[in-house]
Amino acid sequence: MTYKFRARLDTEWVLEKPDGSSFVLSDVLRLLASIESLGHIAGACRACNVSYRHAWGLLRHAEKELERPLLETSRRQGTKLTRFAQQLLWANRRIDVRLAPVLDGMTGALQEELQALYTESRPRLRMHASHGFAVEGLMQAVDSQEAPSIELRYRTAIEALASLNRGECDLAGFQVPVGEFQDPILQHYKPWLDPEKHSLIYLAQRETGFFVQPGNPRNIRTVADLGQPGVRFVNRQVGSSTRLLVSLMLRQKGIDPTRIQGFDTSEFTHLAVAAHIVGGMADVGVGVETAAWRCGLDFIPLAKERYFFAVQRDSLSSPLMRQFIDLLLGDSYQSFVGQLAGYDATGLGKVLSPREAFETAFDPLSKAA
């Protein structure tokens, strides 16, 4: 019988006091998150599977340790979090989303080592990919279906394509904007994407743009507005395609990035950027629409991007790759991607050559060029 499991690494807040004792915040944070979502303690107790008495005990003890109130209650509005509790909760969320790609990479390495100890481990595909919500959904899909195990490592698009060329992964995820910035982005992939060797598996089209506070109080509409006095920006990490796209847009407008406050402030995931905005640490950030929707932020579209997996052409006929493509074509995953805010799943799972995907734009990457 095949041994089937998924390793998981979690974070935990522990506050150490001068006397050497410690206070674990994990249960308190889960309870606060449920109260924020449901608006009352009774429902939060059911959601967290704790008694009403135990919940109040946790909260009162936390208020004593933190020396700050956490809840505001009224007959008309129910139970609300204090400003301090909201900031505490968002600090935890920022940490979670910042650490997510690191923990995912460590989890993948751990699972690879553990599964190597079993002679009947499930076959797996190695995926290196830039962060995206459709990619996250794949990990849930492979757990619930008869599909090849996927070992996921989050990488920038260029890192992923370079790994594919070195034989360190089987699938390299990357995105390319539709329209005028397609060719400049493709030129950055030139050393690692060979139309004679590689094929592309299409995932989806997604909306990329700015995240701003509800109501857009800074009236940000275009990249030119990033240079307004006092506007704080949060970027994606160095080497990411999203950061490169913003840089190209600024260059087109003749705007010096050094004039933009926070241009060198970076996060590794779309949700981490959104959490930065929600927490009041920046006025505007950049990422895919799904993150803005999940965090209750307004979204200003900048570009549509198509997301692909590059593979070695001769691997397409392998049983594992065929199973992977069947997973993409299945109703369950198609439905999942289709309901993501800002995603269009039309054509999901289609196999293309680079020239079919990008028409003449890919000619400079051919061997004849």
What's the structural blueprint in terms of helices and strands?
Layout: E1 14-16, E2 22-24, H1 26-38, H2 41-48, H3 52-66, E3 71-74, E4 78-81, H4 83-115, E5 124-129, H5 133-144, E6 149-154, H6 157-165, E7 171-177, H7 182-189, E8 198-212, E9 233-236, H8 241-252, E10 266-267, H9 270-278, E11 284-288, H10 289-294, E12 298-312, H11 319-329, H12 331-338, E13 343-344, E14 351-352, H13 354-358
Parallel strand pairs: 5-6, 5-7, 9-10, 9-11
Antiparallel strand pairs: 1-2, 3-4, 7-12, 8-11, 8-12, 8-13, 8-14
Helix pairs in contact: 1-2, 1-4, 4-9, 5-12
Structure classification: alpha/beta
The average pLDDT value, as a whole number, equals: 86
The amount of beta strand, in percent, is: 15-25%
| Major sheet summary line | 10 strands, mixed
- Terminal CA distance reads 51 Å
* Radius of gyration computed on alpha carbons: 23 Å
Principal-axis shape: globular
SSE string, helices as H and strands as E: EEHHHEEHEHEHEHEEHEHEHEHHEEH
| Percentage of residues assigned to helices | 40-55%
Parts with pLDDT < 50 across at least 5 consecutive residues: 364-369
Q: Please give the count of helices.
A: 13
Give the number of DSSP strands. 14
Give structural notes.
This protein is α/β, with parallel strands linked by helices and 369 residues long. The protein is 40% helix and 21% strand. The chain is built from 13 helices and 14 strands. The protein has helices spanning 26-38, 41-48, 52-66, 83-115, 133-144, 157-165, 182-189, 241-252, 270-278, 289-294, 319-329, 331-338, 354-358, and strands spanning 14-16, 22-24, 71-74, 78-81, 124-129, 149-154, 171-177, 198-212, 233-236, 266-267, 284-288, 298-312, 343-344, 351-352. The strands form three sheets. Strands 5, 6, 7, 8, 9, 10, 11, 12, 13 and 14 form a ten-stranded mixed β-sheet that branches. A two-stranded antiparallel ribbon has the order 1-2. It has a two-stranded antiparallel ribbon with strand order 3-4. A hairpin with a 5-residue loop joins β1 and β2. α1 packs across α2 (41-48), α4 runs antiparallel to α9 (270-278) and α5 (133-144) packs antiparallel against α12 (331-338). The longest helix is centred in the N-terminal third of the chain and has 33 residues, at 83-115. The termini are far apart. Mean pLDDT is 86; it is low at 364-369.
